[in-house]
Design brief:
Layout: E1 2-5, E2 18-19, E3 22-29, E4 39-43, E5 49-54, E6 60-67, H1 81-88, H2 100-107, E7 111-116, E8 121-128, H3 132-144, H4 152-171, H5 178-186, H6 201-206, H7 209-219, E9 225-231, H8 235-246, E10 269-275, E11 282-288, H9 297-308, H10 314-320, E12 325-334, E13 339-347, H11 353-370, H12 374-390, H13 395-409, H14 415-423, H15 427-437, E14 444-450, E15 509-512, E16 518-523, E17 529-537, H16 552-559, H17 569-579, E18 582-587, E19 591-599, H18 603-615, H19 621-638, H20 642-655, H21 669-674, H22 677-687, E20 693-699, H23 703-709, E21 736-741, E22 747-756, H24 765-778, H25 783-791, E23 795-805, E24 808-818, H26 822-839, H27 843-855, H28 864-876, H29 883-893, H30 896-906, E25 913-918, H31 920-928, E26 933-937
Amino acid sequence: MKKIFAIAFLTFSASVTVLGQAKLIEKVSKKGNEIIIPYEKYVLPNGLTVIIHEDHSDPVVHADITYHVGSGREEIGKSGFAHFFEHMMFQGSDNVGDEQHFKIITEAGGTLNGSTNRDRTNYYETIPSNQLEKILWLEADRMGFLLDAVTQKKFEVQRSTVKNERGQNYDNRPYGLASEYTSRALYPYGHPYSWLTIGYIEELNAVNVDDLKNFFLRWYGPNNATLTVGGDVTPKEVLKLAEKYFGTIPRGPEVKNAYFPAPVLNADRYISYEDNYIQQPLLAITYPGVPSYSNDEAALNVLTSIIGRGNNSIFYKNFVKPRKAVQASMGSSTTELAGEISIQIVPFPGQSLADMKKLADESLKEFEAKGVLNEDLERIKGSTEAQFINSLASVSGKVSLLAAAETFTKNPNQIQERLKAIQSVTKEDVMRVYNQYVKGKSAVILSVLPKGKGDMRVAPDNFTVDKSGYKKPDYGYDNLKYTKAKDNFDRKQIPASGKNPVVEVPKYWTAKTPNGIKMIGSQNTEIPSVSISMSIKGGSDLLLNNTAKAGLAGIVGRMLNEDTEKYTSEQISAELQKLGSNVSVFDGGDAMLYSASSLTKNLDKTLALFQERLYHPKFTTDALDRIKKQTIQGLKNAKTQPANVASTVFEKVLYGLDNPRVMVSDGTEATINSITLEDVQKFYDENFSPSVASVVVVGDITEADAKAKLAFLNSWKAKPVTIPAPAPGKKFAKTTLYLVDVPKAAQSEIRVGYTTDLKYDATGEYYRIGLVNYNLGGAFNSRINLNLREDKGWTYGARSGFSADDHGGSFSASAGVKASATDSSVVEFVKEITMYQKDGIKADELAFMKSSIGQSDARKYETNGQKAGFLSRILEYDLKPEFVATQTKILNEIKEGEIDALAKKYLNVNNMVIVVVGDKQSTLPGLQKLGYEVIELDADGNRK
């Protein structure tokens, strides 16, 4: 690593290097094979930090602006405000219209979002490199010119959207409130970590526009922000644009690092609540931990990995393998002000939470007696190195690491330091942090209980929040003033796009082995890593004529991750961890999928383990019984999740309960119970053949090396495999509404759609119908999402799309909506589909779609994963090399008339299925008024 500093206190330089107005603080370059992200760091006179990473490997740019404010800056009574404000930042500013931020970036071929956590809020975009100026203009406009564009209507819509987000991700989800209860009990009253970033509904209801304006003025100044730009750029051009658009924005109030005392527990705090959506209880034990970048952070990660992560952990051995718990894990999470060490256990039926607590205590004592083995350190250090290297695969990943490190440490160059911290952890370090933070320490002990099962709690509740002694801090909200930048240019002018970058489809090679395996590969030397995937056609589809064994393919997939002839599952996992590699198998529905990833230097050893899993599985009764029990419990749990129930029931209605395709993937409790070891062996013996296999190789490897290292596949003996074709879906004489009751559900899940005769065709009508749908429900700025989310505030997100394979397809539209708007949301879904079918696309929508999809090609081939997905489609559907060029030609030449004709042909509101999963008592009266026949179903899709 080469670091060049230019700051005033260096003895060899009495001045600061200046480029324009920006001060060069630091320049870091890479030497040799260092795991490091090169960058230049500058500070503008108004305090904005600018970090630039130059990487011309792909014609893309990722920009991130991070504000050092999260829910950790919130006041008592105003929880959720930092996250609510994040939503408001997308609602336009002086020079950017309402709902235009997403539209402008999407139309430019980019993608964007924002996120809020306890300690920071960030906004980010990935775009073609010719759009750099546009995104900096957008980010600067909302930093300097937001408040006058804020209206009461926008405020209310986004407040409703945030409340729907809470409903979807917390209130309407199994175990969704566990962290809220734990945080309230772990941190003292008034500590901003004592509530979740999403906030409380009643407090979101209480805030007003003035609160929003004060929050903006207090925390959203340039001196509390870091702009990080990476990708196909030069520091000179980024600085020039940063100075132009951000440089005149006035400095905000000074911001100091927040400080709150770490939680101190003098005794165990027992708490509990009943969950509307669960069948099995959960035990959560949480100890106070350490903040981010603490000296003990790495050792705690090692400690919790040894005790509770992966199938070499003590928890796996004591809880999961003997079938006492569905899941049992331990982890250490860190944030700016504090950390948490957590244990979570979901028992199998017949095991009590008290049993789980006792076994957890015994497991900790077992660790204490056993200590730390050399192999434990070797496993964790090997996997950590690979994680850091793979985090550098995309420019967005690199930018995110730089931005976070600068925000919290003022030193972007943390990746090497964090890797060193893990690599230097000793056995003594691990035992020291165990004794310091876990052994004999008090914890918050939460019991999450099924409705009406309060007697299942691990112990009686003994804790209530103590509000005495709280003193409100001074957050600095007095005398805030809104001062706008004064410029010598017109900010209302949207910057023009630069010259379109040249987007090259990845160069790839193809081959076929003597025994029939189709191969495809592409070399990518950006990081020393290789990804290999193998698809063996069949999967669950092989059971279409044998539904008595429905679910067998999924069981086989999981069994293939267990023992082999040479290794137990624990041994093979340990070897893979040491290498920093992964080899896994799963049922993909229409294929069994093997996946492998490895650092280049460890590829030979990784492929030896891949070969072992492919050729020499060892199916055991113990593994089968455990996996069957886990699978059955998973089926039961899935019936408590409204979103899962909606999607499952929707498919069953579309295709019919008697259609094998709706059951062969998951199976039922009866079919899973019927599966024997002989069934598993027979499925493997009869259906795994090179004649139906294909391999994709992407990464730091040449074609010649790939073929040589995979030569062991040539000895695989071929056999004939017959794959049944799935039965088609149903056609409906009229639109019918189906209701599944989830009493007291916070939201309703809606699915709308029908089957089609469309088959996958990369350059035919299937590709074109995707273009048709883009403005209806495919983009953020689509009609459906703008209506239900941005205009009405009824949902966190709504969408629609067509899907297809070789046997046909379907159209579906979906959303999770607030319960009180269930019937109205159904009306709006049908209205939008009807209007699009009847009136067709508008000229500006057509231009938006062409620009957005056309320019997005720059983002399609950056990472190994993206390249592998592209190559997989080529193999699966036997696509010609020129199919991308053909798609581009279709996109450029398609006209309104063709779009409208396809919409009339494939959009159908008269013969649809509408599935609603929600609270019957509150939703049924409104749904009955819509004029559809309403049929009540249970969570399995059966008529009530």
